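User: I'm preparing a small set of examples for a lab meeting where we compare how different chains pack in three dimensions. I only have the primary sequence for this one, and I'd like the structure in token form so I can line it up with the others. Please keep the answer compact; I'll paste it straight into my notes.
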Amino acid sequence: MNFSFLKNRKIIIGLWLLVALVAAVKQFVIGKYNNYLIFKYVFFHTLEKKSLYGLYPENYFDHNHYGPIFSIFIAPFAVLPDAIGMPLWALFNAAVLIYAITKIPVESQKINWILWICFHEFLTAILGFQFNPIMTAIIILSFVYITEEKDVWAAFCIALGAFIKLYGVVGLAFFFFSKNKPKFILSLLVWSLVFLGLPMLISSPEFILNSYKEWAFRLVEKNNENAGLDSMQDISVMGMFRRIFRAPELSNLLFLIPGLALFGLPYLRLKLYSNENFRLLLLASVLIFTVIFSSGSESPTYIIAFVGVAIWFVLQESPISKTTWFLFIFAMILTSFSPSDIVPRFLRETYIRPYALKALPCVLIWGRIIYEMLFFNSNQNKIEV
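Assistant: Understood. Below is the structure token output for the 385-residue chain.
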């Protein structure tokens, strides 16, 4: 059988876009698009100067957790009828993430494999009309633009991501790769002022500044809510321990402090900052770390981490070790396919969801990435195992 279509970029991209469109239409028809309604009303509530973080059961359930600048970002879709806006939002998510992945500095065929590896995880995200594919793209482009010495655009991505969902601030992890740090810092300040001020144009300075206070309060409340043992979120290192040991009182700091220490260790290898493979391993580490150490992580959030898994896998030199194959297949099954019918419902409902085990393969792979970065041989451009 001829499998050459697997290498055809146009076919791969076409399938991504088709899946995005079909998923959006399906969710619209069956009436499962609460997240999109939350997004849409961020724009209208900003116009009306109504609290962005209150409950509006007549429009949607749950709270908004996005910053005021999101009102501008979602505006082109919000003003359209839902039957048009929702499919366009899904296609936009797909297009932005595809673009970002194609900008990753690896060989063309490796780009194709990243797209295939992340295909199902993208479907999981888009079925919920999530913003996470765009957030993934923002983090990737922060890295790409810094390494391409486009500091203004790197700062744009980091500031935009941080002002929308805070996750974008992790782009600062690539700061040390910048060759013009004063320009980068100045650009970051300018873009931050721009994103702070833009929503004021459709509301008022007083309303927006007060909204930031509400946002901070809501995020603190959300963090406390996520720690519940029955939460659909907190699919993280902390969440696994809290649920396995039935200990919701466990503090995030017990995990974040050692996690940050491990994350920071590879930065001690200053001579490798210019090595492309080392930098790409750091990108993979950032993408995974962002998710596995966040109490707000839910199943659709894992598109962020899974792009990191895919980058790590395609960087492996042949012959690929048995350990690497095991971790990769483990991630495909337990992280990517576990929300689907490929994994038996009994396992999903009895073990995987109750114990936040979707996070486990990504935690193990992140540990492996840290190990590889610490033992990276720059002379041979490979990891010494």
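A couple of notes for your slides: The chain is about 65% helix and 0% strand. The CA atoms of residues 10 and 112 lie 10 Å apart.

User: Perfect, thanks.
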